Amino acid sequence: MRWPRHLLSLLFVSMLLAGPPMVLLSLVGPPIAGWPTAQQAREWVQQPLTAQTLTVALTIAAWLVWLVLAYTVTIRVLTRLRATVSWLRHLPLPTPLQATASGMAGAAVFGVSANAVTTAPPQPPHPLTAGTFDDPGDTTTGDRGVVSDAGIAVSGGWLPREVAEQVAAAGALVWLRRRRTYRPRPPAPLARDDQDLAPLPPTAVAVQAALADHPARPADAASTQTASAGAGGLPAFLAVLPHAGVGLDGPGALAAGRGLLVSGLLAGQRHPTEPLVITRTVLTNLLGSAETLGQNLPWMSVVDSIDEAVHSLQPRPDAHPDASPDKPRRHTDETAGAAHLAPVLIVEAPAPGGTELELLAGATAARAATVVVLGEWPAGATWHVDPAGHTHDPRRPGWAGPRLCVLDATAATDLLTVIAYTNPPPSTPTTDSSPHPVATGRPVPRQPTRQSPPAAQGPPRRLTLRVLGEPALLVDGEPMAIRRTAAVQVLVYLAAHPDGAAAGQLTAAIWPGLPRHSLTGRLYTTLSELRRHVHTACGLNLIEHTDDRYRLNPAHADVDLWRLHTAIEHAATAVTDTTAAWQAVIDAYPDTLAAGRTWPWLQPVRETLRRGVIDAHFAAAAAEPDPRRALNLLQGGIRVDPYNADLHTRAVRALITLGDHDAADHLREDYTRRLAAAGILPTDRADTTATLTGQPAIRTR
C-alpha cells in the first residue's frame, strides 16, 4: 500500500515548510525590522563584524534557504496539478446513453426503501497477463486503440471481438499444421533455415497480442459466443446483413468490403459448405494485385463478371416475399444448419436498369445468395460506412446500423495470408541465409559453476532463471516475486536470445502493433525496476547494457534454456558417443518454453526448440536396436509434440512390428480425435490417415 508512504512524505514536507519560519520568527523575529538609518549604516561601515550584524546575516541566509525550498515544492506541486488537469481533459466522458442509464440506476437506488437496500459484491479485478500495460487501472492499449468487449483496434482497422478471436484461432491453427507436417531429421544446430518457422504477419500478431492484453471475462465470453453465432446460428457477419442485399458506400466502404471478405472466409472454416463469390474487379479494388493470393484462399470463388457470379448459383425455393428488405436475416428452419447457408456475393454496383441488377435481385429474392454491393444498391438498402466501420441508412435518419469490420489493404492481406495457409509443405532447408531470431552468432555463454569466484565480497549468491516450463527467477533456490508482467516477458526474451536485443527489438516483441516512440519510456521503466529489484535482493547485476543491447549477464545468471542450447549444439556436431549427446538434449527439455504464456513472439522460438528435441528422439530411436526402447523414445517424442504426424506414423509401425495391433489402432484413433478437437479440417485428417496407414490421401475439396 502506498498511501502511508505518501502521507509520511506529505507530513515531512509540511514540517520543512512550516517549521523553519516558526522557529525563526519565535527566536529571532523578522529578518529585517526596517530599513537601516544613515547612522546605522555609518556604524556598520566602521565596524561590520558585530554580534548583531552576524545574527542578521545568518537570519537572512536561513530565510533564503527556506525560500529556495518553498520555491522547489511550489514548482513540483504546479507540475503535478498541470499533469492532473491534462489527464482530466482526456478523461472520456459518458455517452448520452450511459448518462441516461446512470440516472435511471441512481433513481432506482434512491427510490427504494432503506430496509430493502442491498449491496452487490465487488467485481473481481481483471487479470493481468503478460504484455499488458502493468497499471491495473489502464484498460486501453495506447495508440493501438481501446480494446473492449465489442472489438479490437489494430494498425489498419477494427475487428469485432468474434472476428478477432477467429483470427487468433486461425493463427494458432497455422502453427499446429506446421507442427503436424514437420518431418524429423538428424540433429541440426539452432540456426535452422526452415521456411515454415517464419512468424505470422504483423496484423495477426497484433490481434493475438491484443486478445492476450484484454482477455474476455466469463460473462463476456458467453455473450461473445452468442454474438458470434449470429441470429439463428448464422455467422455473425451474415446475421447483421439484410437478406435482400445491401450496398456499401461512403469513405469506409472499401475497408468494410475487405472486412466482410476476411470475416466470410474465417466463417467458412466453421461452415465450409457454401463459397464466397467475388468478382475480379472488386478483388482488385480491395487488395490490388491479389491473383496469387486469391487462388490459394479456400471457400472463395473469383469470377469475371456479375453474370457469371449469379449463374454459378443454384436457385433456392425458400423465398419469403413478405420479409422486409431492410431487416437483417432471421433464423428459419431452412437456415438452421450449416448446409443451408447461402453463399455471399461481393460485387461492384450493377448498371441501373440492366440485366445484372435483375439477376442480383432475383438471387436475393430466391434466397440463393447474400449480395453485398460496393456502391449504390437500388434493389435494397444502402448503408453509409464511415472509416471506423459505423453504418447508417441515409433514408432513415436516426437509425444506427451495426459496426462492420474494417481493414486497410495491408491488414487484410496479412489476415488473408493466415487463412490461405491450409496445407503447408514439409519443412525443408531453404537457401535463405537469414538466421532465426533464436539463433546466436557466437557460442552460448558458459554457465557459472559452484567453483566460480563470487562477483562481490561476502557469501556467494546463486541466481537461477528458469524459463522451460513456468518462468521463475530464483535467488539461492528461493523464487523472487516480479511485480511487472512485462518484466517476466523481458527475462524470457533475453534468455531466448543470449546475444541480447536492442530496445526496438524488445518493444516490438512485447508490445507488437504499437508505435515504438510511445513505449521507450515504459521499457526503460520496466528494465530499471527489474535490475534494481534483483540487485537489492542479491547484489548481482542480472541485465547488462553494452553496445546498445540488453543481455543477461552470463557470469551471474544460470539459465536452463542455455543448457538446452548447449546440448542441441553439441548433439548437432558430435561424432562420438552420439547416443549420450541425444539423451542430453532429451533430459534438458522438461517442458515447453514459458508454458502457459500466449506471447505471439514465442511461437517461432518454441517450435525451433521443439524440433531440436524431436530430432534427438528421432535419432535416438533410429539408432536403438531394441524395438521396445525405440518405441519408448518415439512415444517420448509424441509427448513433446502430440500433433506431429511423422512420429505417430513411426510409433504405429513400431507397434505393428511388435504385434500390438490394438495399441496401434488406439494410437491412430487418439491422434485423429486430437486433430479434430484442434480444428484440423477433414482434408487434413485424410492426409493424416493416409500417413498413418500408408494409403494415398483422398482430397475432399
Automatic annotation (TrEMBL):
Outline the extent of the Bacterial transcriptional activator domain. 559-691
Q: Mind telling me which residue stretches traverse the membrane in this protein?
A: 49-73
Please give the InterPro entries that the UniProt record associates with this protein.
AfsR-DnrI-RedD_regulator, BTAD, TPR-like_helical_dom_sf, WH-like_DNA-bd_sf
The alphabetized UniProt keywords are: Membrane, Transcription, Transcription regulation, Transmembrane, Transmembrane helix
Superkingdom as given in the UniProt entry: Bacteria
Which GO MF terms are attached to this record?
Answer: DNA binding
Q: Where is this region: Disordered?
A: 313-339, 420-462
Question: What ranges does the record list as Basic and acidic residues composition bias?
Answer: 317-334
Q: Please give a single GO biological process term from the UniProt record.
A: regulation of DNA-templated transcription
Q: What is this protein called?
A: Bacterial transcriptional activator domain-containing protein
